[in-house]
Each structure stands twice: as structure tokens, then as C-alpha cells.
Specification:
Elements: E1 3-7, H1 13-22, E2 26-31, H2 34-40, E3 47-50, H3 56-62, E4 69-72, H4 81-98, E5 103-109, E6 119-121, H5 132-146, E7 150-154, E8 156-158, H6 164-171, E9 176-177, E10 183-184, E11 186-188, H7 189-201, E12 206-210, E13 216-217, H8 218-229, E14 236-237, E15 250-252, H9 255-258, H10 269-275, H11 279-290
Parallel strand pairs: 1-2, 1-4, 2-3, 4-5, 5-7, 6-15, 7-12, 8-11, 9-14
Antiparallel strand pairs: 10-13
Length: 291
Amino acid sequence: MSKVLIVGLGFVGSPLAQALHAKGHSVIGLTHSVGSAELLKQTSSAEVRQADVAELGSLKQAVREPVDWIVHCASSGRGGPDKYRRVYRDGLANLRELCPQARVLYTSSTSVYAQLAGELVDEEAPAKPDRETGQILRETEELALASGGLVTRLAGIYGPGRSFILLKYLNGTAVIEGDGGRYLNQAHVVDIVSALSHLIEINAKGIYNIVDSTPQTQRAIFQSLADHFQGELPPKAPPDYERKRGWTHKRVSNAKLRATGWDPRYRSFQDAIAHDASLIPSIRDLIDHQD
């Protein structure tokens, strides 16, 4: 079994640590703040340590033993280009210097695909984001690939406690942009974790998209929510072209990942709405605590 260093014990990193530990791997988890480290030590399956991924000295203090895999899934905390550069590009460079023999798995984003015509995109499609944040993600991808590593491009992440689409629909702030024809690509956290664990198990290299099997238009998703809750469609609004990672319109393929033997538990957002018993109550709970 492998010794795995997970950088970022957040929405993806924490359940990934649990999944890898359950498979017999030894897991070290890094988190940025001292407070988070103390809390996570009480619940995490990983050996939790505190370090700043952007500071090589901090990493050297926290990790002194060799590891087989590094999973870089730290969050930028919704920061801008400077934070992206520190956490992602500089962070991965530091991790490679810290553990030069380790295999690298970097969790990137499907936002690096800047396509606008609703086309189907796979891992061979051009990935040329026009926003600086997306360009930093691509630079970090190239760092990982240059060392023979693995890059996973994650679609919009959702699951219990996190679903911007469901949250906005239920709290009444959702809008349908333009004609609602823009495609949205999503992945349930359970499927992201199972995909990451699977790719480590098969010692994969290169680039893999992690996304469900049913890209859908914004209007189709909100129509399904209106049908489920017997409510109304959200009102229309102009498209938001100022998104931090850019405005895109594409269907992201998971065919390469499925060809390795993986398949998502939730093939569509509607599958999760129907079968993930925790999803809707957890979002309602978020709304209740916002009031």
C-alpha cells in the first residue's frame, strides 16, 4: 500500500482521506490553519498536520518522511490570481521540491476548457482559458504533467452541504441566464472521491475529466428542480460574462475515465436529487442558518 500526502482536507480532501485509509493506504493530511488542524485531528482518517503549501519551509517542517503520492486539492479560498498563484502553481512547485520521487495528482478544473459553442470536449480538446485564474490552473497542470504526474479536471462540485444550483433555487435567488441554453457540467463529491481513489489505485498518468455522464443546459436543470419541488422556473436574466473563471458553454466528456473501469454513482444531477437522501436536507439546513 502507498503513503499518500493529501494537501487540503476540505470538501474533497477529507472524504478522499477516509476512502484511501479504508483501502489500507497510509494518509497524511495537510491543512493551512492551526485551528482547522486541531479540529480535523479529532475526526479525520488522516494523520493531520498544519502547513502553508506556498511556503517551502513550512512544508519541510510538517513533512519529513518520503511519500508515494501527493494529492494537491487545496482550495484558493475564492481568492484572485495572486492567491491562485501561491496555492496552486507555487504550492505544487514546493511539493515537487519537497518530495521529488512522489507521484503527483493535481485536481484542476473543467473551467480550463474555454469552448463556447456547446461542443463535446474531451481531454484532447484545446484548453486555453482566457481568464488569468484559468491560465494559472493550466500552468499548474503543466508542472504536474512535466513530472509524469496526473491531472484531474473536476466539473462543478456538489454534494451534501454544497450545491450552488440547488441552494439558489431553494432560496429564490436563481436566474436563468439568457435562453438557458448554456451547458452546465457537474460532479457529485462521492463520484469525485471514487474517481481519484480509482486513478491512484491504477497508477494513472496524464489528464482525466471527472464529471457526471449527463451534461445539461441550465434551463433543463432548473426545469427538473421545478418539477421535483412543484415550483416555478427561475426568472430570466442577462448572462454573467464576468465569472472569475470565464463564461463557457461546452459538454465535458468522461469517456476516458469510464474506459478505465470507473462509473459514477450519480450519472446525472437528477439521480442525486432522487437518491442522495442527505443532499436536499443539507441545503435546506444551510438556508435556515443563513436566515
